[in-house]
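Slide 14.
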Amino acid sequence: MDPSDTALMEAALNGDTDSFEMIIRSHSRTLFAVAYAILQDRAEAEDIVQETFVRAWNRRRWMRDPSKFPAWLTTVARNRSCDILRKRRTVPLRDDAAFSEMADAPASRPEEIGDDMHLHMRAALGRLPEQHRTALTLRYLEGMDYLSIERAMGITNGALRGILGRALAAMRKTLKPAAEMCE
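Slide 15: predicted structure.
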């Protein structure tokens, strides 16, 4: 984190509303991506982002190290998302039987192939562990660089590369039958 970021974090944590607004603007998209990767629901993810910033504002006095503030925000959003997911998850993200039926049904039009592959990708993403979904979402859907993801998730470069490698391998394995069907 460069000195200007640290100064911004310090000002925000000391109650400067303009600095806190800049933090909201710069971190909202990342927090949304984390929450959406877990919940797969846009409205719930937006609520999580708002709750995270309200919590951050209310607890800003307890933050000792401003450089850890972005990772703390991400952790709060991730934990709150997991809480909501546990409460609502009486049914898995994607029923295996429904996924099998979807994979067996041939697409009749070219545009349906794209729609089917999108459904397969969502199902495969939903089956990944939360940390893997988050890393993939931030890297490939949000286009974040490795350093930003490491800071947001509070992990090292090696850990991130390992997570992404395992997540991509799992996605390839899950999507291989669907990709062959679409060829």
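Speaker note: Residues 58 and 68 are 17 Å apart (CA to CA).
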